[in-house]
Design brief:
The complex is a heterodimer of chains A (108) and B (278). Helices cover 39% and strands 25% of the residues of chain A. Chain A has helices at 43-51, 67-84, 93-107; strands spanning 3-9, 18-19, 23-27, 30-35, 56-62. In chain B, 68% of the residues lie in helices and 0% in strands. With 278 residues, chain B is an all-alpha fold. The longest helix of chain B has 19 residues, at 83-101. Classes of the chains: A alpha+beta (108), B mainly alpha (278). At the A-B interface, strand 1, helix 1, strand 5, helix 2 and helix 3 of A face helix 4, helix 14 and helix 16 of B.
Chain lengths: 108, 278
């Protein structure tokens, strides 16, 4: 089974979703709340996140897309990125670095 | 064709914009003093039903999750929400209303919110106050708001020239106005008594000179580039044409490293924030 990690606004997070990375909520450098990667979120956790005014959560979910669907999604991302960078000089190492970083993020 | 505008004309016309929210400058001027900030916040919030409702709503969401009773007063609400969050909300909501009252397009404000979120996230990379980063991000294109408000036809012509790919935006603006939106934004920020670092960030957001020594300008520049690269507003004309290597170095950003956590945080927070202001 393949998995993918996504960052979701709290409004889209539901009970049973599994954390894709450690969740740490800090205020003025003091950790107020934390949960480990791989933890399945409970109703109580969702209440705690609301109490601490979390805005987003990183979750890990099964990637049920077929290989063809994934390839299509990546191709669409590549087309869009090429459009956004249409005026960029991709011989410039900084711009190329950013382009590749966004592309790698989209592919993940 | 307006001819070349000057500082006096910019300020005179700025007087025809809605009143710039005084609370923004008050909060930024007293960030290091929680008592003073609290006083400003309480004063502003008490007179502003929209901000009051939003903070009470947040506090009641938290109280409900705790199984507690209804929160009705601002002192309890502020203690539940936290002063940093209340400050962020007051800044954002005040500037959102200013933009709304100025009757700018929803795209303008969504882009501003996206850049504000990016700037806040990037401020973690360097010693920059997140509230300054938020305000610089929200106001980075305030010069364009001024232009669109008073010279809509000329702005349309600038956009057409830029879309045709014949000329960069700042150059096109200079042809029509004598000044570009970065320079006009700086004059407005200075006129509204915003901190010098915020005004400088607005002036340099298309690319600070290397060695400028104003990290907020680097944060704001990279924030706008990232907002476009990540397609946060999904506008067809989103584009990235330049990214300052010196600004990336100031922020210690190495694009060959995995940036998925930074990008993911920015996307989720921008989605949350844009939804909150719709």
């Amino acid at each position: 089974m393949d998995y993918r990690v996504r960052y979701l606004p709290l409004s889209e997070v539901t009970e049973g979703m599994v954390l894709g990375c450690q969740l740490v909520l800090a205020e003025r450098g003091v950790v107020r709340f934390s949960l480990p990667a791989g933890h399945p979120l409970t109703e109580a956790n969702l209440r705690q996140l609301a109490i601490h005014h979390a805005e987003f959560v990183c979750i890990r979910e099964e990637d049920r897309r077929s290989d063809e669907e994934r390839a299509q999604a990546v191709a669409a991302h590549e087309r869009r990125l090429a459009h956004i960078f249409r005026s960029a000089d991709l011989g410039d190492p900084t711009l190329t670095g950013l382009y590749n970083a966004v592309l790698a993020y989209r592919r993940s | 064709m307006p001819g070349h505008v000057n500082r006096n004309q910019i300020i005179e016309r700025a007087g025809r914009l809605p009143v710039f929210p005084r609370v923004v400058t008050d909060i930024l001027a007293t960030l290091d003093d929680d008592n003073a900030t609290m006083g400003n916040l309480a004063h502003h919030v008490e007179q502003d039903p929209v901000v009051t409702a939003r903070i009470l709503s947040l506090a009641n969401g938290a109280a409900h999750a705790h199984g507690g009773g209804l929160v009705r007063d601002m002192v309890t609400a502020t203690s539940m929400v936290g002063i940093a969050k209340v400050r962020e909300l007051v800044l954002s909501l005040s500037l959102a209303r200013f933009a709304g009252d100025s009757r700018v397009s929803s795209y303008f404000w969504e882009h501003s919110v996206a850049v504000g979120v990016c700037a806040q996230e990037l401020s973690r990379q360097v010693a920059v106050c997140p509230d300054h980063a938020l305000v610089a991000g929200l106001l980075h294109d305030i010069g364009q708001l001024w232009m669109a408000k008073f010279y809509p036809l000329e702005v349309q012509q600038v956009r057409m020239a830029v879309s045709a790919g014949t000329v960069p935006i700042r150059e096109a603006e200079k042809q029509y106005f004598g000044l570009d939106h970065c320079e006009i934004g700086y004059i407005l920020a200075d006129h509204w008594n915003l901190p010098e670092s915020v005004a400088v960030a607005i002036y340099h957001h298309h690319g600070p000179a290397p060695g400028l020594g104003q990290p907020l300008a680097d944060v704001t520049h990279v924030a706008e580039v990232l907002a476009n690269a990540l397609d946060l507003t999904r506008r067809d004309d989103n584009q990235v044409a330049y990214l300052s290597p010196a600004s990336c170095a100031v922020l210690d950003l190495d694009w060959s490293e995995d940036q998925s956590q930074l990008f993911g945080r920015i996307e989720a927070r921008a989605q949350y924030a844009c939804a909150a202001f719709r």
